[in-house]
Amino acid sequence: MQTIRLTDRRPIRIKDENWPVIASVSSWDGQYESQAFKKWKIFVRSFYCRQKNNEQRYIVYGWYDSAWQGDDSITSGYVIDNEKDLISTIKLVCSEIGDESLARSCINDLPSEEIE
Predict the structure, then answer these.
(1) What are the pLDDT digits (tens) for 13-62?
(2) What whole-number distance in Å separates Cα of residue 23 and Cα of residue 62?
(3) Whole-prediction pTM value?
(4) I need a labelling partner for 104 at 20 to 30 A (CA). Which of 28, 32, 45, 95 fits?
(5) Domain layout of the chain by residue ranges
């Protein structure tokens, strides 16, 4: 079980095996993450339920963490019920945690879309 903090909503608990990560991106200041004072992370998880009319849901969440005294950590996250809001939600979470440049990398990390 994992607890995820959301924006303007109480935290949720999920089973990792039911909500696999379909995209994730990290960023930090400096050359090595282990030596960084500031870190940003974003995750996209997907839930697919055949028993509920092939329902597809997503959790987009991320955080900013700082080792600097007085620099507060930030969390952001949303549960969305449709794929059409996925891109805008990724951009929103990245904006809220203070690194909008992560959005493009996270979108590029999503599973590819098949078109005919």
Answers:
(1) 999 999 999 999 999 988 888 888 899 999 999 997 655 666 789 999 99
(2) 12
(3) 0.89
(4) 32
(5) 2-109
Show the tokens assigned to 40. Answer: 């940003």
* Secondary structure string (H, E, C) spanning 8-72: CEEEEEECCCCCCEEEEEEEECCCCHHHCCEEEEEEEEEEEEHHHCCEEEEEEEEEEEECCCCCC
- Tally of CB atoms within 10 A around 73: 11
What's the DSSP call for residue 107? H
102 and 40 Cβ atoms separated by less than 8 Å: yes
Helix (H, G, I), strand (E, B) or coil at 76: strand
Q: CA torsion sign, 75 to 39 to 89 to 111?
A: negative
Q: What stretch of H or E contains 2?
A: strand 2-6
Strand 38-49 relative to strand 55-66: parallel, antiparallel, unpaired? antiparallel
